[in-house]
Amino acid sequence: MKRRLRRLAVTAGSLALASATLAVPAQAATTSASSCPSGYLCGWSGTNETGSMMKTRADMPTMGSWDNRIRSFWNRTSSVSCLYTDQNYGGGGTFFGDEPGQGATGYSLDLDRTISSIKFVPNIRDCDATPYSEWYAEPAPKAAGFGDLNRDGRADLLSRDRSGRLWFVSGTGDGTLIGGGWNSMTALTRHGDLTGDGVEDLIARDSSGTLWLYPGYGDGKFGTRRSIGGGWKSMATITATGDINSDGRGDLLAHDSSGTLWFYPGTGHGTFGSRKSLGGGWNSMTALTAPGDLNGDGHGDLIARDTSGKLWLYPGTGRGTFGTRNLIGSGGWGQMSAFLSVGDVDGDGWLDLVAATQDGYENPDAGPTANQLRLYAGNGTGSLAKYRLLHQNWYDLNGGF
């Protein structure tokens, strides 16, 4: 139960979700903090909601007469509350973050008369880190045709947080808010230009099964969406692939609930032509991603993870089909929560694969490999190098794209 968290602050370059030393959960309030008005966070000068009470629903960079007086608290706002041991939301690495309807009411040595500032945020992550994943990519020696959303020569990332905000994260690590409400989308995918303007676009499916195209501007932003059509709810995966039939237009793959993989050829106008079946049996695959030309033959390829945790490369033929698959990962890939194909990340001229392990915030039993963003470098021959840890900051997020 994630009632009270104590983390070390995440510092630049360090992924201190080691931070995530989780403290022993505080005791639940016996009265649900009934004396605290709805919509407020309340603190008491005594343990177990005793003594004098303060209340706030606004950020407090300083606490005034309540500085270092709180001994118990309860959050009845609709936001996550962050209570810090120093003024201005600092504190040598310690904070208390609580979801709405939670708090700490019993005695805690860390909490006892240590709180000097309070703020309210959408997610626990916002208490001590950026709301988007840490990210950095080296300048690529040649354009991959996808991955670089702002045309600065570096692979970029889209990061969605738990409250549904979508962030553009440039290859230099800077994050810009694209907008909110993206939790209504059950699939997001991107890989190159779909509208014929030379700029990478974004595709998203909503909960009703409508597929939407968000045309890219080439600066990390997207234009007004337009509907591609309905009926996509039956698709287990939707994957933009870039041009895999050699007609110069970006294409799409989707596999349906029966396990059939469908190829949707792009028209270059933000729509797709008549679909073609690429065969059945794809229900055994739990993730698909299009890394581009991974084996150096000039055709875009496909990577798939199966239910046993193996990773397979399906080499593209350049005709909208794939050749005999090759095993490129013998096991252990089941722990990955996301696969990101965004081009050349390490700047060596070869296309790469990025993968994120399980979120330790959502999966407390994920173990020491949780929250990792890993780079699996390509070598142009269709295989991947042993991973290099990029960051250990992949927590309290809702996917990367």
From TrEMBL:
The keyword Signal applies. Gene3D superfamilies: Crystallins, Integrin alpha, N-terminal. InterPro entries: FG-GAP, Integrin_alpha_N. Keywords: Signal. It holds the Pfam family FG-GAP_3. Residues 1-28 form the signal peptide. This is ATP/GTP-binding protein. It comes from Streptomyces spiralis.
